[in-house]
Design a protein that fits this description.
By secondary structure, this protein is α/β, with parallel strands linked by helices. 17% of the residues lie in helices and 28% in strands.
Length: 180
């Protein structure tokens, strides 16, 4: 069903618009359609009363699974939540950041004393993916090695405790742009 618009008439009370009953029916029909769509009761082709939109549970087995609106909201929230990784590095050590399909990767270097000579290996980043590195105590001589792309922008505030630096990967240019 398409949207039903209430006929208002040409002038107040001129009798050319929909009656109160017809207008009320249109309102009810419009809301019924919205609630049915929100609850997944839309048949193929858009007719009401069907089994609802289906998403595949897996790309290999193609087992259909019906998702409710709440399922989709929970899934979307999980996708925008950052992937958080915690490391306790030592001087001269190496930290290897795990890949993630989340839009943001947050890396916490939770060292309790000043460190020097740390190597940080980036994962292969996706287009638009952001990578934050936050550290607790002072650090110096940190080497950053991206798996893909060229690192643009200096690695600032390394000697400062409780600091951070961040990059975003641009697939079109093949660069990681520092932005924080």
């Amino acid at each position: 069903m398409g949207q039903q618009t209430i006929g208002l008439g040409t002038a107040d009370n001129d009798g050319t618009g929909d009656s109160l009953k017809v207008g009320g029916d249109k309102i009810n029909d419009n809301f019924d359609e919205l609630y049915n769509i929100a609850n997944g009761y839309v048949a193929e082709g858009g007719a009401l009363g069907g089994p609802g939109p289906q998403l595949f549970a897996g790309s290999d087995d193609h087992v259909p699974a019906v998702w409710t609106l709440e399922d989709l909201i929970a899934y979307a929230r999980a996708q925008v939540a950052p992937n958080r990784q915690l490391f306790t590095p030592t001087s001269g050590g190496t930290v290897t950041i795990a890949a993630s399909n989340r839009s943001v990767i947050e890396v916490y270097l939770n060292h309790t004393a000043s460190i020097t000579g740390l190597t940080v290996n980036f994962p292969t980043l996706l287009d638009g993916q952001r990578l934050f590195i936050l550290w607790r105590e002072t650090a110096s001589s940190i080497t950053l090695t991206p798996a893909n792309g060229t690192l643009l922008g200096a690695f600032g505030n390394v000697g400062t405790a409780n600091a951070r630096s961040a990059w975003v990967y641009n697939d079109a240019t093949g660069n990681l742009h520092r932005y924080a």
